[in-house]
Design a protein that fits this description.
Distance between the termini: 30 Å
Strand content: over 45%
Helix content: 10-25%
Number of domains: 1
Number of helices: 2
Strand order of the largest sheet: 1-2-3-6-7-8-9-4-5
Largest sheet: 9 strands, antiparallel
Shape: globular
Mean pLDDT: 74
Number of strands: 9
Structural class: mainly beta
C-alpha cells in the first residue's frame, strides 16, 4: 500500500503542479491542493494549477486533478476506482456536477481500455460569507468520509466520498 501511494504521489507530482503538500496532513496554504485520509488508510488527493478566477463562469470547467489510493464511493453510491482523474465542474441551471475522467487506472500508466465516459457526481452548493477570487480546493474529514470542496467567489460546491464498504446512497 505504501509503495502504491508513493507511486501515486510521484505521478501526481510529475503530472500536476500544486502538489507540494502531498506528504503533509494539511492542504497547501494556497488552496491549490488538498489531501484526506480515511480510517482504512485510503488517501485522496485533489488539486488544481489554475490562477485567479474572474467570475463564476470562469470557474466552470476548471481542471481539477484527483487521485485515490483505493476504490471509494460517492454520496450517491457511485464507485470511483483506484487511480488518477482529471475532473471539472459542470453547471446547468442550479444543478452542479463534478465530471471525473480516469487518466491512469493503476496510478502509474494510462488507462488501457481507451477513453472512458466521465463519472458524473452531483455536487451540493452552498453560499459562503467569505469571497475569494481564487479557486480553492479542500477536504473536510468527518467520521468515515471525506468531503471535497471547491470554493470560488461566494460559492462552495461539495461532494462526499467514503471507503467502498460504506453506503452513502441514503444520504
Amino acid at each position: 500500500m505504501r509503495k502504491t501511494l508513493a507511486a501515486l504521489a510521484l505521478v501526481l507530482l510529475a503530472n500536476a503542479s500544486g502538489y507540494a503538500q502531498i506528504k503533509g496532513s494539511q492542504p497547501a496554504a494556497s488552496g491549490k491542493s488538498a489531501r484526506c485520509e480515511l480510517s482504512d488508510g485510503t488517501t485522496m488527493l485533489a488539486g488544481h494549477s489554475g490562477s485567479t478566477i474572474g467570475s463564476k463562469s470562469d470557474a466552470l470547467g476548471a481542471q481539477i486533478d484527483f487521485a485515490t489510493s483505493a476504490n471509494v464511493v460517492s454520496v450517491h453510491g457511485l464507485l470511483i476506482p483506484f487511480g488518477i482523474y482529471k475532473a471539472s465542474t459542470l453547471h446547468e441551471s442550479n444543478n452542479w456536477t463534478l465530471a471525473m475522467t480516469q487518466v491512469a487506472d493503476d496510478g502509474i500508466t494510462p488507462v488501457k481500455s481507451g477513453p472512458a465516459e466521465p463519472i458524473r457526481l452531483p455536487m451540493s452548493i452552498t453560499k459562503t460569507l467569505a469571497t475569494s477570487k481564487s479557486l480553492v480546493v479542500s477536504f473536510d474529514h468527518v467520521g468515515e468520509t471525506c468531503t471535497l470542496h471547491v470554493n470560488w467567489e461566494n460559492t462552495q460546491a461539495s461532494v462526499e466520498f467514503a471507503g467502498r464498504t460504506k453506503d452513502l446512497s441514503t444520504k
